[in-house]
Structures are given as C-alpha cells and as structure tokens.
Amino acid sequence: VSDEERKSAASLWALLGGPLVTGSDLTRLTPSGLALLTHGGFLAVHRAAGDRTAVPDEQSCAGGGECWRLRLPDGSDVWGLFNLRDETARVGFAAAAPFTARDLWSGAGLGPPAAGFNASLPAHGCILLQARPVAGGGAASWLYTPAPESTRQ
Fold this sequence. Notes:
By secondary structure, the chain is α+β, with helices and mostly antiparallel strands. The chain has 3 helices and 7 strands. Strands 1, 2, 3, 4, 5, 6 and 7 form a 7-stranded antiparallel sheet that branches. A hairpin with a 5-residue loop joins strand 3 and strand 4.
C-alpha cells in the first residue's frame, strides 16, 4: 500500500466519522504512518464530523473519481476527492455558489473564490479540502491552518 493510498483511506475514514482504530503496532509505525495519524487537518476533519457523515456527491463530481461531501454546522463543506484510477486523473466538483477553499492536508489556500474545483490527483490519491461560502458564510472558520515554519518542532 502506497503513502497516497494510506492518505486516501485516512481521508475517507475522517469524512465518515468512524472511530479512529488502527491494527498497526504503534511502536513500529513508520515516520510517514505516524505523520498521517497525527496530522492536524486529518484530525480536525474527524473531530468536526462528530455524529455527521459525508455522503457521495455524484451530481457535482466530474472526472475520473469520487467526490464525498461533509456539511459542517458553520455552513462550510469538507470535500474528499478521490482518484480511483491506476494513473493520474483530474477529479473535481461544481458548486452552486462561489467559495474559498483550503487543502486540509497541506494547509494551503486554493486560489481566489470559485464555483468549482478540480485537481490532478496521482493514482489512488486524494485531496481533502474545506470550502467556505463567500456570501452568507456566517462564522465559517478554517478547520486547519498549519503553524508557521518558525514555530514547528
């Protein structure tokens, strides 16, 4: 199983709000495995899901994969875009109104407001993003913002 496939599995796990259980020997986790299970964006989505669960959004999804959407109480959505192919593919979604977005794995902002999003994803890869409405977004706040480089240990 590749690191991209692990990230995809963890993203879906967080979106579905399932209990965080691993069959791995925690004393033998690789650095990438530990980074995955302790990542702030992943954990923020899992906490925010609470008793809600993401649903597949086939109508809005475009490209060679699947799109899952988790509606949060603050009016924002968390989207998981998954490439199910064995090669790189573009996966995206269309929205009814403009939004701003942030990649919850990297913490990077994803450009100016738009009414859709698409990304080139590696084989079996994913992107987990939060989309905040531009108009009438209320108190929607970012689930995850990485610490500045100077404060990281």
